[in-house]
Amino acid sequence: MGKSIPQYLKELDIRKSVVSLATGAGAIYLLYKAIKAGIKCQPPLCSNSPICIARECPVPGERALPQEAPAPEASDVGGPKGLAIERERHGRDSGELRRLLNSLECKQDEYAKSMILHSITRCVYLLEAEASACTTDDISLIGYMLDDKDNSVKIQALNTLKAFSGIRKFRLKIQELSIKVLELISTIWDTELHIAGLRLLNNLPLPDYVHPQLRRVMPALMEILQSDYILAQVQAARLLSYLAQKNDLLYDILNCKVHSNFLNLFQSTHPGSLLYEILVFAERLSEGQNVAHYRAVNWHYNEQSLHEALFGEGSRLADRLLALVIHPEEEVQIQACKVIVSLQCPQDLVARSSCQPSSSYFKNGE
């Protein structure tokens, strides 16, 4: 009471300044406490977390040595040593891939194993020389990961094997895992696992001793082909197209049970990538059943078989093919025409110019 308005404002400014100073001092003190706690913190036990995936683990129970950032070393080209890929390009082994493989041998949790395998996959693609220097024991180590209880680890292991399969000297070793991969695909309904497993198989020449297992998993492959996951369907169609060229597997494929709406796979509304692979598959089947030695046998197919869906008397495949001839994508158009030609001309007559369209499949005028 009795104070003028300017005096009140001046007193209010002083109080605000005091509060600000107190708040700032408190923040600085808390920051000091945090820094002090960080300095005193001991290095963690070797938990093998994804943060440490590039380190080699010490004996279990020991603490990992803290990694110090080394000063950049001058390279021959005048700049500091950079990424591992840069060091390899200049003829130096970064050792990154070997460290990752070594860390995979340590006891890891599922998340850490997935991250390590993902990093190994990247290194194989980027560090060609280091990847080529790996051994078949490294492939076996990765193969053990296919038995892990966690599906994400299995998927990353499949991706890593796919990366290594691009190196010729590892293909034979990876082929030995084909039966295991087929088992995973047929017993676990996981789309990402299907995609990873099928991509690996499509990157390998499958040996004859795998054929018995292929016969057993044929229904599973056909189910994946008829699923609603485009990437998995594309990979399944590619594998089946490859297998359709194997004489001892052709009947097993054609006699495999399919859904009543199988021809929906030929609808023009599907992505061109899927339509193309489905059409290639149909062409391989048509060519295979038209070969003279296959036609020489009186094969019997069940009523719900792939053969009846595609080539049976009641099949509407011709209508679907004619619709795809005017598809917007040229690749699909051409492949649809190839299927039509293969249906009209037996394989041993395709090369003859006198091959006339048969009225048994396409109606007169079509």
Automatic annotation (TrEMBL):
Name under which the protein is recorded: Armadillo repeat containing 12
Gene3D superfamilies for this protein: Leucine-rich Repeat Variant
GO cellular component terms, semicolon-separated: nucleus
GO BP, one annotated term: sperm mitochondrial sheath assembly
Lineage, top ranks: Eukaryota, Metazoa, Chordata, Craniata, Vertebrata
Annotated ranges, domain Armadillo repeat-containing: 95-305
